[in-house]
Design brief:
globular, seven-stranded mixed beta sheet, 7 helices, about 20% strand, alpha/beta, two-stranded antiparallel ribbon, about 325 residues
Length: about 325
Amino acid sequence: MARISTISADADARVPENAVRVLLTGYGLPGGVCANYYHKNPTWLAVAPLNNVVIPLELDPPSADEMQIILDADHPNGYPSYTPQHIHISALQLPLTYDAILEHVPGLHARPPTLPPANPPEMDVATPPEDGYDFIFHIGLAGRGPFRIERLGHKTGYRIKDSDNRHAPVVEFLPEANALEQAQTEMIEQMRASANMVIAGPASPIDATIEQPTRGFGKGYESYPEDLHTMIDVEQLVHSMKQEGMEQLYSSMDAGHYVCDYTYYCSLAESRRTSLRPEKGTLTKVLFMHCCPVDQPFSTEQVTDTIRKIIMWVSRNERW
């Protein structure tokens, strides 16, 4: 039987009733040259402190007339009761490889979700909710600079090797043109053309002398478009965060065509797949944000605080 992340009764005891359930993911150690630079992935350093954190959903308690009236034998007219709703966060570490993402991310959207054995042993995770997480927030590492909230994930175009020095899967199947709408036909023809392109340019991890096949999502994802957009209003999120003083945060249309992008597309696709099943129904909101390495310019604590604020905004504004 496959091992899953450590499920803890103590962690379960911290989950408030009717909480908004959030799954927050970071990555494990990168490979190659980066493995000599990082002792821990900066994304995991920022994500881990939020595991099993509980945050009040509402900033202010409701007025008396908004409270629920609880009937009680000792109070013939009932009495007002206010039980505030909370957000509960579970943190999960994902391997930085294409194969692991394709193996584990679909399970995060299962009903009930299944968690991979990627977390450090000391990380206790609350039992996933039977009807799925309300919000899954993925955090990835970019270069020095501001936070980037990604608006979409890409289906193909993955030419960079992962931390195991492996490529994304080759797309073996492309639909025939007569089975598609005109816009889809044009997109498929572009994909077929790109499969035979020779990549030119400065030195890179891609061998410019070898014809590159189309890599990304194939079998099981044929019906999904080339780009999948998050259902969260990213522009409004960025605007609201900037109003709160977070100036170094922007929206992005390019998640990088690497493992981060691969994670995002897979998570968005699986969220939609699950929501289309009549017995499942609920759409899990999905978002991806790129952060900087430690102190370039934000500290780990600042990244953690930004993640927390975004979780609060999404939970309060993107209601289920």
